[in-house]
Amino acid sequence: MTNIIPRRRRIVRPLFWSDGLKRSTMEPSTAPGRMGCLLRRPAEKRMGGERRSERRSKMNRCVSMSRRGFLAFGGAAAAALATGSLTGCAPSMLQEGGSAEGSGGATSDVAVWAGGKVSATELEASAVEGEPIVDFVEELSFDVVVVGAGTAGLPAALAAHEAGASVAVLQKEASPVAQGMLAARVVKDRSTEAGMTAYLHELHELNAHRPRIDLLRAYVERSQEALEWYESKLAAAGFDACEESDSKDHVYADGNCYVQGLLFSDSMQAPTTALAEQAANDGVEFFYETPAVQLVTEGGSIVGVVGRTDDGEYKKFLASKGVVLATGDYQNNEAMVERYVPDAQDFGRKQINKTGDGHLMGLMAGAVMEPGSPSKMIHGGKGCFREEPFLALNLNGERFMYEDVPYGDRNTILRDQPEHRMVTLFDANYADQVYGWGSDPTVPTVANGTPEKIAAFVEDGTLLAADSIEELAQTVGLPVEATVASVRRYNELCAKGEDLDFGKASKYLRPVDTPPFYAMPREYAVSAILGGLLVNADGQCLNEEGEPIKGLYAAGNCSGPFYGRYDYSLSTMGLSVGRCITCGYLAGRAVAGA
Fold first, then answer.
1. Where would I find the beta strands (DSSP E) of 115-193?
2. How many Cβ atoms sit within 10 Å of the Cβ of residue 283?
3. Better-predicted residue by pLDDT, 20 or 204
4. Which of 527, 533, 575, 572 is nearest to 555 (CA)?
5. Rounded to whole angstroms, what are the CA distances from 365 to 130, 296, 325, 492, 582?
6. Domains of the chain as residue ranges with CATH
7. Would the pTM of this model clear 0.85, i.e. be above it?
């Protein structure tokens, strides 16, 4: 069941972009682009088309409150339910007026749930349903229910099952879904205790001292255990495509911390699919195309989940030990992006159907979001030399930045540029320049800049080549006169050995003057939003008093705060995937009582 938010506006694209596609027109089609600049379905098609309006009509009718507990609304609403003061045939449990008390006469855009922590607009963009559901076609009982079959959800399900729990996995999609390709782990037997502590503090400092120390410590101390366990599960599933990549030994005054990167083919999708198949064979029950829409409560504890089938019916999944929310981020829920990370609003999205379902259900059950604006991961798509400080021009053919700004931070500068895109230009001397800067253009996950790769990128249209700057500008779709002027000015600065316009370090000033000339169009889009429900090291969701909510856990990008920097730091390649696997594994063991 796919729920896609309405499009905000039409986006004009140049002829070529880093998804490797050639566009013959400047207007996008009605299909989603490969880079995730989503063109949303009309609202009436969400959540099953006409069935949604029918369900709304049903839910607006009077319902009985005598059945076993339903979704916790939090705040004043929860207290009112406990005392029975919200009985009768009221048309809606929605609190209107922009406050927990409500003042009436408000539109749905300002209506709120859970004391203001969730808006009707946020719910509308998700699979979550606000009205209590009491009619079920089936009731199933498990020890543990995991919501989400992805990079964190599958380790949680497997770990819980391995610990002896009966496990159900609810997945909104028709199959498992995972992104990324590289997972990092701290190798304890190649590190010193002092070095591991220093690395923990380095991560804390890189993230503006905002992460919870216990979450960082859990990763540093147990990521090797979790990733070795994960590899063993992959081996049992017949998947053997892991290799070491992007490892780094962090050396400090009093010790070292060796962080090893594991490269999983070219995507986490393949190992995730293999793990799901193995888990199903081992006895984990999967319910695909069954989004979780509400949490089930009893006496303040979370005891299950309501799932909605593809035909619009509801099933109750009881969980005697607890529920793990692992639904990924909320990048496709525009109202949540606007509320929590407005810096990401105007960028395209690389994922689909990430609508914050776990976040919203947790909030409505009394959990809280991590404080402050979360880190965002906005990168520039596939292609070569993503980090190299070659000349960069915006869509007007103008230079606009000092190109040695860290790769992970460039999106912040592009926020103020036309359509948040740029084109990187370099010439035939690229290899000598890259090696001269002390870089390795053959790192598998970063550069891909060997002559053979360059030729392949030109062949498939990802990289554009021409014998003159004028021809190159025409091919890319940049204004020719402005592009030629910008390159001429840049070459003059290179000859001076000083960047008087933007202040780029002199060692990176290399002219673009030797054909063939190359252009790498880059479209920056949101890979992930790295913020979620406040949890402890076991993944237990915490309430406003900082106390664990019995039976409720979260993992992956549904949990936090593990990060805190305005942009995802690339100081440890593969940290995001490694962290998701680790915290999923730990949450699964914890909920099962291991």
1. 118-119, 138-147, 167-171, 182-187
2. 9
3. 204
4. 533
5. 11, 9, 12, 61, 25
6. 382-523 (3.90.700.10)
7. no
